[in-house]
Amino acid sequence: MVLMTLKPWLAISILFSFFISNVIGAFVGINIGTDVTNLPPASDVVALLKARQITHVRLFNADAHMLNALANTSIEVIIGVTNEEVLGIGESPSTAAAWVNRNVAAYMPGTNITAIAVGSEVLTAIPNAAPVLVPAMNYLHKALVASRLNNQVKVSTPQSMDVIAKAFPPSTATFNSSWNSTIFQILQFLRNTNSYYMLNAYPYYEYVHSDGIFPIEYALFQPLSAVKQIVDPNTLFHYVSMFDALVDATYNSIEALNFSDIPVVVTETGWPWAGGSN
């Protein structure tokens, strides 16, 4: 996972969406993980969010300090089920109900929780949990229904671009066939619950893996020269950024499985700020 950092002590990446619905519209938010060293008090973190006019936040885990600090701020919050919790929740409706009561119902309506992100890139990060991913989503949704919170809180699961076999050209993109069954179940759940597909889309990885096929400007939202234009040969669409192409590839992959009414929300994107020797 690539994280951008606004401050040395605050690990964040970009939460970015064009299309949740016609009502909500576009927004840019951030992801916050509390499993880092020297994290300041949650109240200071929230003060920074408000100062920067951040309106949307995704918490990688259900951190009680952050959830309390976000109360009465109107900031919309996606709360994360960790990968370590997915197996237990996917095997037990009572565990899912307890999780919702402890981490969602206990903080609403003061904290504006709008969605639960079930795991992080489960299909590629912990494939052994794939069989229980959709059951986990279903159990959490049923727990929300029982708590009468299902109209306010959606359930989805962030996936990486690795579940898409070939992202370019976007018009012919499809999900990796090895995941088709699980992806189909996920999409069916999202449609039935009026939720949205959560996508982690990092142009950095796509650029590195392209072995020089794409110019660096294309990955960095920078202007392209006439000789560097990126065109989908099937639609003749001109892409000015790799980010846009990744989102379109996801929409087309969804449509290839005969789902056309599921919005895509980019739950992570960004570029390395600092990190390992590579």
Automatic annotation (TrEMBL):
SUPFAM superfamilies to which the protein is assigned, alphabetical: (Trans)glycosidases (SSF51445)
InterPro entries found in the cross-reference section: GH (IPR017853), Glyco_hydro_17 (IPR000490), Glyco_hydro_17_plant (IPR044965)
Keywords: Glycosidase, Hydrolase, Plant defense
GO process terms (BP): defense response
Molecular functions (GO terms): hydrolase activity, acting on glycosyl bonds
UniProt family annotation: Belongs to the glycosyl hydrolase 17 family.
Protein name in UniProt: Glucan endo-1,3-beta-D-glucosidase
Organism from which the protein derives: Solanum stoloniferum
